């Protein structure tokens, strides 16, 4: 099983980034997927989640209206579109597969700074 995140980087406040998480080694379309983040000195927190077919999404209050989670089951990939980024969004972002064993990616750094 592999979950490989990409798309992180350094962006100025107000900017945008699109994270991707490519999955392999399990039946991607069967499971919900989530994005979490962990800032230095803080606990890992749920950012957004999407159901297996993509019809249902949930978001942390702190990102509602700014972030959008989506998935392409044909490409085994989940995305996180992040707009209007703030310095408080700086963190390592992880994707997570809500399969019975629960799989994590290695994370991708997002830094929002001028």
What does this structure look like?
The chain is globular, with a radius of gyration of 13 Å. It is built from no helices and eleven strands. Helices cover 0% and strands 50% of the residues. A hairpin with a 6-residue loop joins strand 5 and strand 6. Strands 2, 4, 5, 6, 9, 10 and 11 form a seven-stranded mixed beta sheet that branches. A four-stranded antiparallel beta sheet has the order 1-3-8-7, with no helix packed on it. It is an all-beta fold.
Keywords for this entry:
114 residues, mainly beta, 7-stranded mixed β-sheet, 4-stranded antiparallel β-sheet, globular
Brief rundown of the structure:
The protein is mainly beta and 114 residues long. Helix content is 0%, strand content 50%. Strands 2, 4, 5, 6, 9, 10 and 11 form a seven-stranded mixed beta sheet that branches. Strands 1-3-8-7 form a four-stranded antiparallel beta sheet, with no helix packed on it.
Write the layout of secondary structure elements.
Elements: E1 2-6, E2 9-11, E3 17-24, E4 33-38, E5 45-50, E6 57-59, E7 67-72, E8 77-82, E9 91-97, E10 103-104, E11 108-112
Parallel strand pairs: 2-11
Antiparallel strand pairs: 1-3, 3-8, 4-5, 4-9, 5-6, 7-8, 9-10, 9-11
The percent of residues in helical segments reads: under 10%
Please outline the major beta sheet: 7 strands, mixed
* Oligomeric nature of the chains: single chain
Radius of gyration: 13 Å
Distance between the termini: 37 Å
Q: How large is the count of helical segments? A: 0
- Which range does the strand content fall in? over 45%
Number of strands: 11
The shape is globular
What is the element string, with H for helices and E for strands? EEEEEEEEEEE
**Average pLDDT figure:** 97
Low-confidence stretches: none
Task: Indicate the structural class.
Answer: mainly beta
């Amino acid at each position: 099983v592999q979950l490989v995140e990409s798309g992180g980087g350094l962006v100025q406040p107000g900017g945008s980034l699109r994270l991707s998480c490519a999955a392999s080694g399990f039946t991607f379309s069967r499971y919900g997927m989530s994005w979490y983040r962990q800032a230095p000195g803080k606990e890992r927190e749920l950012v957004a989640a999407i159901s297996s077919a993509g019809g249902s999404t949930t978001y942390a209050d702190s990102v509602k209206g700014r972030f959008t989670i989506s998935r392409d089951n044909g490409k085994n990939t989940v995305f996180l579109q992040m707009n209007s980024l703030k310095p408080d969004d700086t963190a390592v972002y992880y994707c997570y597969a809500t399969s019975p064993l629960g799989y994590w990616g290695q994370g991708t750094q997002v830094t929002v700074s001028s």
